[in-house]
Amino acid sequence: MSSLPWAAAPAAGNAIGLYAKWSPALDGKVEAALQRLRDAHAEHGAGLVQSSSLGVEDMVITDLIARAQLPVDIATLDTGKLHAETLALIPAIGERYGRTVAVFKPVAEAVITFVKREGEDAMYKSIDLRKACCGVRKMEPLGRMLAGRTAWITGLRREQSGARGDVGFDENDGQGRRKISPIADWTWAEVWAYVEKYAVPYNPLHDQFMPSIGCAPCTRAIAVGEDFRAGRWWWEDSSKECGLHAKG
């Protein structure tokens, strides 16, 4: 199930208080995730990169990489439409872990051309235009991020949505690279239990009922009983994907 386990808590509560629950299985899951990361680095070396959305799952993975003392590059996409709270995590990673995050931005001219042609609110007009916006702002810079890489690390979890229910720990991304999802089997409660135990930095927007955070115009808080990714492109009847994790 992808619905969140809501708890009765005051509005002032935070995501840790709402969700964190260390399960008996989590110690083993942490060790297994660390081993997956070690194995990926042993196999791919400098060809491996963590593609971080700066969401809580990816912050957990960055913490795991640091805990394992792996020299894995960390990179993120700055679409030009991210929340300030999301961008603030880039220097926070440097301060906490001593790691530099490589930032990939869309080609400015391509964004200007798209906005002039379709408008700033193109994403609301049709699914095709929203995906075209994602193409300019996310897919093209992702291609540059992954150029020359043989594998990338993601924060995908099977619980996130039906479309991600069969995510593998190590699978072909359809472009000749391996996609490593070391916490694919973790629950939302386990993610937050890890955050609590190891004081992992996270986006404060998660405290405002935003479990999945993307571009500001395309993200809202979710209501009780809504699916994990219901706050993404909420005006659409779609699979709630932008193409970054399309099945290849």
From TrEMBL:
Its EC number is 1.8.4.10. SUPFAM superfamilies: Adenine nucleotide alpha hydrolases-like. It is an enzyme of class 1 (oxidoreductase). GO terms for biological process: hydrogen sulfide biosynthetic process; sulfate assimilation, phosphoadenylyl sulfate reduction by phosphoadenylyl-sulfate reductase (thioredoxin). GO terms for molecular function: 4 iron, 4 sulfur cluster binding; adenylyl-sulfate reductase (thioredoxin) activity; metal ion binding; phosphoadenylyl-sulfate reductase (thioredoxin) activity. The keyword Lyase does not apply. PANTHER family: 5'-ADENYLYLSULFATE REDUCTASE 1, CHLOROPLASTIC, 5'-ADENYLYLSULFATE REDUCTASE 3, CHLOROPLASTIC. This is Adenosine 5'-phosphosulfate reductase.
